[in-house]
């Protein structure tokens, strides 16, 4: 390449800031980060971790071979939503936007980091690209506070990467310009294919070394959402206690969220059962390994609803509303809320069968593993057209 062309290339190169703070955000943005890094002549990638989940987010980055350029260390114990919002906004302005010439910011999902990343970008008149846009429950308190955060982010996003047609339709109903909406599938399916065979072998070894059985009779449970704190969590744990006691030939794996509102109750109710493994939050590959091998999943997580169909695992969603209606429509997951009878009856219906007989045959409605490529193509077109 001539010096002249090289200079032109450098002038056209765009600095893209990836802003995230939680493990799910890392998982879903990692494929996009890696995809953009394939084109060093097009993009200068700046990775910013607000560290909303400090240990989990940094640990997960390492599994994808990604280092962060900016770390904000924003979390403090027992801080309010207003306090964390203020801290992230201030940190982004001081450590990212005042130190780098950013051409666009990419956020993912619906966390406090997403809203703050979008707002700070907007205040600096920098384009916002929203990965996983258009998910809606239409109840501002289910999930809380995420539903409001993703709706607000859509108002300022220049590119909305909607995982499904249903997500696109939701954005159109809110009068988002159709030219700003692109259906790409969900990058969470890309992430599943980013894990190497050796990484998954290490995940298997983790459970073997810790004498934790992962078999055809394994049930994975995750419960952490803010709206499930209090009486709902009591109801959920009572239902799980019944199931655990009834199916003593099954083993239950529950990575316990560190929030004391969750952790203390989980240990007090389920700690006495020998067939329950209460674990610290699992590394991403270890969680994928359990999902891949589980007979049943009980969860209030969003990401797991999208990942489990890839492995054909039945999933009971312990929420009353879900922004991932595609899985419900496809029959790969069922909404059970914190309803004791629904959780117990549907769990028993699945656990009474063999794993082979309970496997789901439907294709994952959330994507096929090429979402990051589609997103990069749209971003490239966006800058080319300027």
What does this structure look like?
This protein has 386 residues and is an alpha/beta fold. The protein folds into 2 domains: 3-185 and 369-384, 3-Layer(aba) Sandwich (Rossmann fold), CATH 3.40.50; 197-358, 3-Layer(aba) Sandwich (Rossmann fold), CATH 3.40.50.2000. Helix content is 47%, strand content 15%. The chain has 17 helices and 13 strands. The chain has helices at 3-12, 23-36, 54-63, 81-97, 112-123, 146-156, 165-173, 187-194, 197-209, 231-246, 260-270, 284-293, 303-307, 325-330, 340-351, 355-358, 371-384, and strands at 14-20, 43-49, 70-71, 104-108, 128-131, 159-162, 181-183, 218-222, 251-255, 276-279, 296-299, 315-317, 333-335. The chain is globular, with a radius of gyration of 21 Å. It starts with a helix and ends with a helix. Residues 1-10 have low confidence and may be disordered.
Radius of gyration: 21 Å
CATH architecture field of the largest domain: 3-Layer(aba) Sandwich
Please give the CATH class of the largest domain: Alpha Beta
* Overall geometry: globular
Q: Topology as H/E string?
A: HEHEHEHEHEHEHEHHEHEHEHEHEHEHHH
What is the tally of beta strands?
A: 13
């Amino acid at each position: 390449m001539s010096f002249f062309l090289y200079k032109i290339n450098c002038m056209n190169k765009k600095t893209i800031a990836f802003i995230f703070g939680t493990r799910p955000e890392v998982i879903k943005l990692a494929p996009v980060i890696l995809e953009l890094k394939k084109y060093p002549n097009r993009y200068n990638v700046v990775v910013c971790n607000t560290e909303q989940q400090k240990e989990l987010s940094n640990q997960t980055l390492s599994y994808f071979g990604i280092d962060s350029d900016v770390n904000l260390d924003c979390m403090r114990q027992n801080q309010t939503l207003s306090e964390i919002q203020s801290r992230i906004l201030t940190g982004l302005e001081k450590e990212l936007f005042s130190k780098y010439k950013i051409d666009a910011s990419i956020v993912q999902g619906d966390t406090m980091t997403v809203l703050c990343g979008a707002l700070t970008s907007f205040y600096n008149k920098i384009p916002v690209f929203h990965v996983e846009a258009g998910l809606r429950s239409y109840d501002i308190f289910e999930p809380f506070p995420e539903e409001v955060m993703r709706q607000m982010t859509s108002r300022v996003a220049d590119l909305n990467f909607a995982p499904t047609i249903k997500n696109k339709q939701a954005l159109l109903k809110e009068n988002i310009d159709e030219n700003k909406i692109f259906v790409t599938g969900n990058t969470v399916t890309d992430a599943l294919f980013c894990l190497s065979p050796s990484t998954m072998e290490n995940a298997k070894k983790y459970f073997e070394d810790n004498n934790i059985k992962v078999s055809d009779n394994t049930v994975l449970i995750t419960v952490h959402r803010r709206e499930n704190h209090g009486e709902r969590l009591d109801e959920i744990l009572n239902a799980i206690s019944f199931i655990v006691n009834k199916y003593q030939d099954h083993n239950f794996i529950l990575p316990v969220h560190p929030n004391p509102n969750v952790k203390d109750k989980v240990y007090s109710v389920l700690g006495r059962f020998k067939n329950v493994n209460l674990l610290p939050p699992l590394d991403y590959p270890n969680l994928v390994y359990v999902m891949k091998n589980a007979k049943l999943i009980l969860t209030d997580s969003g990401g797991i609803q999208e990942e489990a169909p890839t492995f054909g695992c039945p999933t009971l969603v312990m929420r009353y509303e879900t922004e991932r209606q595609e899985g419900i429509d496809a029959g790969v997951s069922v909404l059970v809320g914190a309803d004791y009878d629904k959780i117990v009856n549907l769990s028993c219906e699945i656990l009474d069968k063999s794993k082979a007989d309970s496997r789901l045959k439907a294709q994952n409605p959330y994507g096929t593993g090429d979402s990051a490529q589609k997103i990069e193509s749209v971003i490239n077109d966006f800058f080319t057209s300027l």
